[in-house]
Amino acid sequence: MTDTDTGTDTGTDTDELAERYVAVWNEPDAERRRAAVRALWAADAVHLLQPPEEMRRSAETLGFDRLVLEARGHRALDFRVTRAHEEFVAPGTYVFRSCGDADRLDDVVKFTWEMVARDGGGVVGAGLEILVLGPDGRIVRDHQFIEG
């Protein structure tokens, strides 16, 4: 398959990747969510999270000038996705969605997402994803910036 954004043969469509990425955080079935984690991320992939501002401020009061959270490998990634799902999606309060702005340059994909109130309310959170893909099209590095 040729990626329409770069013209390179990658087997990964950029928009479809962003949609699959966001869908895994909304997936209610644990087995399907676990399978989606393995399909999206390489076995030794790393997910790096720049925490929300209030968490960074709290860390600074403890003497940490740079706070980055990390999940590495399928087990940790599954735990990370499941924990976010349980906190935000499972109670029926929020849902994640892609903003439809995925873009790709070589093996790097970037897109933004939003967390919105399930009842039709407004945006309550947002983030930027910067993904580095391996040769098989799976994510090897996932940089997540919480922006709102």
What would you note in describing this structure?
The protein is α+β, with helices and mostly antiparallel strands and 148 residues long. The protein is built from four helices and seven strands. The chain has helices spanning 14-26, 30-40, 53-61, 73-89, and strands at residues 41-50, 69-72, 94-98, 103-105, 108-117, 123-133, 139-146. Strands 1, 2, 3, 4, 5, 6 and 7 form a seven-stranded mixed β-sheet that branches. The termini are far apart. The model is unreliable at 1-11 (pLDDT under 50).
How are the SSEs placed, and which strands pair?
Elements: H1 14-26, H2 30-40, E1 41-50, H3 53-61, E2 69-72, H4 73-89, E3 94-98, E4 103-105, E5 108-117, E6 123-133, E7 139-146
Helix pairs in contact: 1-2, 2-4
* Assembly form of the protein: single chain
Terminus-to-terminus distance: 35 Å
Structural class: alpha+beta
Low-confidence stretches: 1-11
- Average pLDDT score: 89
